[in-house]
Amino acid sequence: MREMMIVETRDAAEHRGPARSAELAIGMHHEGVPATIFLAENAVFAARRGSESPLDRAIAKGVAVAADSFALKERGIAPHELRKGVAVSDVGLIVDKLVRGSSVMWR
Amino acid sequence: MSKSKTFTVVLMDAPFESSRTTTALRVVDAALKRGINVNVFAYEGAVLLPFKHQQPHANAVHGHDVEQEDHPLPREWVAGMIASAKDAGTAFEWINCGLCVDERGAGECIDGVRRGTPADLWKMATASDNSLVVATA
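^ inputs. structure came back:
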C-alpha cells in the first residue's frame, strides 16, 4: 500500500469510531504508509479548536488531516476556528488520492 | 476511450437518509469533471437513487410551495452526471444490483441506468485503476 486515506464522516463526540480511525492512521503512518484523514460531514466538528479531539495525537504523529470546505460551510465553521494542523480542502483531495493509487477507506 | 483513469464506486445508502449520499456523489462528480471515467455499482437502498418516480414536495413548515422549496432529487443529480459525462466524452456507467432492485420494486429508473449483478461489480473493479466503497454507516 503506497498511501492511505481515511474519509471520516462521524462526529467524534457521538461515536468512538473517529478515535479508532485516528489510531489506525497513526499505526499506518508508523509503519511507513503515509496516512491522511479527510473530515467530511459531522466529522468536521472535531476539527474545531477548543474541543477535545482524537485528531491532536494523529497530527502530532505526522498524520495529515484535512477538512471538507463544504461541510465546514454547512456547519458555520470558519477556517480560523480550526485547530492547528487541520487543512481546509474539498472532495477533490479524495479524487487526487484515488488517482495516485491510494487506498481510501470510507468511515 | 481515452487513456484517462477509471474508478469504480460502490454505494449502499438509500436516498433522503444520509449525508454520505451527497458526499459520495460529490466525489463522483469531481472525478467526472477531471475527465476520469467512473463506474457506480449501487447496492441495497442505493438502487433507489436513480428511481424515476422521485417527486419534489412543498414544505408547510417553511411555508414554501414546491417551486420555492426546490427539493433536491438524487435522480436529477444522477441524470445530470450522466449528461455531463456524455457531453465531455467521459465514460460513466451506473449499474443497479438486480436483486436489490427486485426487493424494493425499484425497476423504473432514469435513462442511462442498467441492471446488473455482483459479477459486473467484480469486472468493473478489476478493470479499474482504483475503487472506493462507500458502505452504509
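Chain A has a mean pLDDT of 95. Chain A has four helices and five strands.
thumbs up if we can close this ticket
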